[in-house]
Each structure stands twice: as structure tokens, then as C-alpha cells.
Amino acid sequence: MAEAAAALGQFDFAGDDHVVPFQVEGLDVRGRAVQLGPMLDAILERHHYPAPVARLLAEVVVLTVLLGTSLKFDGKFTVQTKGDGPVDLLVADFSTPENVRAYARFDQALLAKAVEAGETEPEQLLGKGVLAFTIDQGKFAQPYQGIVALDGTSLEEIAGVYFRQSEQIPTRVRLAAAELFDRDDAGKPRHRWRAGGLVAQFLPEAPERMRHPDLHGGDGDNGDRPHGEDDAWVEARSLVETIDADELTDPLVGTERLLFRLFHERGVRVYEPRAVFDRCSCSRDKIKGVLKGFSAEEIEESQENGEIAVTCEFCSTTYRFEPTELQPAE
């Protein structure tokens, strides 16, 4: 069933935790935009991450949601960073059609030193390493993985490199996260996390128009703009780059309003939003299946106070097992 387009104002706004697909026909651009609120807040507050870590993970969650909701098949999309900085691991995955989970790993001592030194930019916290994008279609296909270097640039820029290398589609990604302090309906102080993002891609009918710019410094560098870059894409990219981080996270600037601000002169269309949810894929049966593959010695070593406790790194749920549950049936 085809997605139905609607003009701004003909339906209720998507609101938080809904991805809004859009199209700008006048610029041959398609994309998705999102603002995350309660769903993201639940993920971050569950682990009580320090603010610099929470902000980083929030951006990764937004990126994962934007890209994962583009899948046209049942499967899982995962974004993972591994670096030598204070935050050495970030993981977020999207399981079709709507489930998101994420967690971060960091060195408390190194993080404290970085904060004290004022070195809290994403590239400083992640350090050198890799950013991996993995698409898993299940048992019927081999997983696909694209790897991009963490080279001291922002997650936005690294995502753009991924698209250039893997999909050969001109793409601009914007990401932002914000920590909000306000009061709830009862007047009590409240702390919340929000994040937002947008991905725009140039998809003209004529494939030759999608030519990527030459690298600066080469024979094709004309000093003003990359040789061969289409005028429509130059305009679209320039508009996307005018977005302030605050606009992506402001609860008073909904996703549709932001898209209208950017592209109304070119005729932006928005499509039916897709909700996303904080839902982990762990279960007692799955973990039990893993533990039943342990040797008797490993089962013995894993016990504490006569039981085995396993806590999911994503959702913090703890599953407890009696050793007798894990013994093979006679």
C-alpha cells in the first residue's frame, strides 16, 4: 500500500518519537526527519549516563532511527562505534518495524579527566576508531556491514562519508541532542533529554545528475564549488545546513514545521509518520538458550549465592536462573 502524502495542516502533527518521511520535488530530494522525546529519555535515564555520554548516545540513536526506518524488509539495523577515547563503545539498533534499543560504555576516570580539561566534543570523547553500520536480514541473507573511520570529525560528517562510500548518493545528515530542565504539570522540577535529526538525499530521475563532487585539491577543484555538483543539490544541501541545533530539539518547533521552514518555497510534501519505541529484544528464553550452551565448569563459575544472574546491557533487566534449569534433559 503506497504511502499517502499530505499538505501541511491537513492532519495532526506527528509529535515526538515519530519519523516523518518527506519529499521536495522541486529539488529532487527525499529524506526523513525526527524529534525524539520520551522514548529517548527512557533509554538514557535507565542507565543514568553522565551528560556528555548521554548526549553522544542520543545522536547515535537519532542516526539509527533515521536510517533504520528506511529498511524495506524485516531485519535489524545497527550503528556501533569503537574508539580509543573515554567513550569507547556506543551501540544502537533498530529492529523493524519500530523497536529501538541502545547503550554506551565509557571509562569513568578518563571521562572525568576529559570533562575537567573541557574536551567533551564528540570527536574528543570517541577518539580514533571506527563507526560500523550493519544491516541484518536474518537467516536468509548475509549481514552487510559498512565501516567508516572515526577520524576526529563529527558523527554527521562521518555518516555522510558512509553514504558516499556505500550508496553513492549525495546525502546530508543533521543531528542534535539537548538536555532540558523545566517543570512538570504539578510544578515540580523536571530533567529531560531530547534529540532530533534529518537526513536528506539527492535522488533525481537522471542518475548522471547524482555525480559526487571531486575531492578538493584535484584537477576538478574550481575554488568556489565542487565541479559537477548539481544546482538542485547545492541548494538543498545549503538549506539543510542552515538548521540550528536548537531547531532540531525544540519541542515548540515540530518536525513538520521545521520542514516547512526549510523547503516551503520548493513544495515540500510530508508522508505518514512512523512511530518508534523503546523496546529491547532480550528475553528469558533467549538468555537461557545461551547459558545452556555453557559447559558445567562455566555454569559453576557463573554462580553467585547459588544462582546465575544475567543483566541485559541495553534495558538493564536482570534474569535469574537456578543451575538446575540449565542442565541438559536426561
Automatic annotation (TrEMBL):
Record-level Gene Ontology MF annotations: protein folding chaperone; unfolded protein binding
Domain of life: Bacteria
Any one GO CC term of the record: cytoplasm
Biological-process GO terms, alphabetical: protein refolding
InterPro entries, sorted: Heat_shock_Hsp33, Heat_shock_Hsp33_C, Heat_shock_Hsp33_N, Hsp33_helix_hairpin_bin_dom_sf
CDD domains (alphabetical): Hsp33 (cd00498)
Name of this protein: Hsp33 family molecular chaperone
